[in-house]
């Protein structure tokens, strides 16, 4: 497979499992260095890093940040910048709580918006100047 992303770094939020991990593996397969992210226990985080390395990433590292917390995102983005920065940002992190609107609480709604929308804004705000 052509390594057209060799020398590039991708940060994929929500990539410790599922769709995000598959995205990280696909980017690794074409040569990208991968920043894995998620709210994961140590074993899950380590397994995700191994998976993207196995897929072809020359380098991979786990970054944790609570996407509901802008200060946590800023710390993560500082760490990513200290690692060399990211050329590619995939805002994949997301949560859902499937209930009828009448049964959704304010806290559930606020958490969904914080992770799925506001968290994406804060990562883009920090990544775009690069």
**End-to-end CA span:** 28 Å
Structural class: alpha/beta
By CATH, the architecture is named: 3-Layer(aba) Sandwich
Count of separate DSSP helical elements = 4
Report helical residue fraction. 40-55%
The CATH homologous superfamily is termed: NAD(P)-binding Rossmann-like Domain
| Overall domain count | 1
Strand order of the largest sheet: 3-2-1-4
Main beta-sheet annotation: 4 strands, parallel
Name of the CATH class = Alpha Beta
Uncertain runs? none
Cα-atom Rg, whole angstroms? 15 Å
Please tell me about this protein's structure.
The chain is α/β, with parallel strands linked by helices. It has four helices and four strands; from the N terminus they run E-H-E-H-E-H-E-H. The chain has one domain: 3-Layer(aba) Sandwich (Rossmann fold). Helix content is 47%, strand content 12%. It has a four-stranded parallel β-sheet with strand order 3-2-1-4, with helices on both faces. Helix 1 runs parallel beside helix 2 (42-55). The chain is globular, with a radius of gyration of 15 Å. The mean pLDDT is 96.
